[in-house]
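Morning!

This is the sequence you dropped in the shared folder:
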Amino acid sequence: MSYQLTTLSNGLRVASERLPGVENVSFAINVDVGARHEQPAQHGVAHLLEHMAFKGTSTHNAQEIAEAFDDIGGQLNAFTSHEHTVYYAKILKHDLPFAARMLCDILRDSIFDADELAKEQQVIVQELAMHHDTPDDLVFDYFQEAAFPDQALGRSILGTAERICAHQSDDLRRYVAQHYHPSRMVISAAGAVDHDALVRLMEQHLHMPEVAASPLQAGRYGGGCRIVAKQLEQLQLVLGMQGLAQSDARYYQQQVLSTILGGGMSSRLFQEIREKRGLVYSIQSFVSSYSDCGVFAIYAATGEKEAAELMPVVCDVLRDVTHAVTSPELQRAKQQHKATLLMARESTSTVAEWIGRHLLHYGEYRDAAHINALVDAITLDDIHALARDLFVAPSLTLAALGPVSQVMDTDAIATRLAA
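The structure's back. Tokens below.
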């Protein structure tokens, strides 16, 4: 594997993996700060900052930045999660010096012009309106809020229209000064990249002061209900329980368990609930793992009259997974996980994102061979034991949006699980 890591004198980590047979490079600046680092008065500022990243520096305005990347056929974007913010570009290999210089300039020298800020605040207000008009997105906000009440981890990444419009340019500058430090950042690149040249670019272009990191509020899973009646054609429903943190030794066991339960067309939930009973069009399980906590959950969209039958069947499937997973099921789930991982490695953007996320979470890059070895080592006993830990007497979180009259409450669900 042609992976290399260099730590500069200011604590900035520069990591790259050269991938054969490609002519492009994906370059990312990964920052160990996201929506869960916000104080209540800062709600939405991390996402707003990401939107403002490409709105102008002291040397390039927003149109010039956009035209510069279009001129070279490159891609430029950013995203915010609860724990990280990532700024990235995908370019042809000879354009890496330009892209790296531009992204570093954006990070160090964004001016956060007041007029541009006012326009972008209205863009986010429109994004919020679209989000609230999309029930299968909105129900996940309700679920997150119920799972992690009264803390930043439970608040929407987008913020609220009121808070977004209240932020001023100085709020963005203070947020950057508070959180954007070299030791909390990882430069990652994948594709046709020369590592030594990348290190020289970072030594030349990315100079930021180091400041002590602000303490992070520990994530506290709470559990509870958020049931919202609304006139919709379908009921949107998310049922979950406390899961594992990203750093837990059983993290990949949890991933494989989720695949067995609701990760594809052969999964237990899909076969039992859609194929055999026709109760849903869509059903799946998923895992959201953070640095110190996590949730394991099931999402389904169903009709009002089908809702009464749906949840008891879900409970029965969860109970069966605690003791009745078969060897062929486990092998199939392992192969799905490994194939997905290997196919995703054909994307330079995916590999660059993995490198950055792994270094921020684990302090090391876990390549495909490392992860596949962990997956191969999982046994039926591991899966059954983890399922019992997660599904027997759990503290439940339930979010439902739409025609909710037939939704079981969490006490009834818990009783069914314990039967």
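Headline: The first strand starts at residue 3 and ends at 7.

More detail when I'm at my desk.
O.
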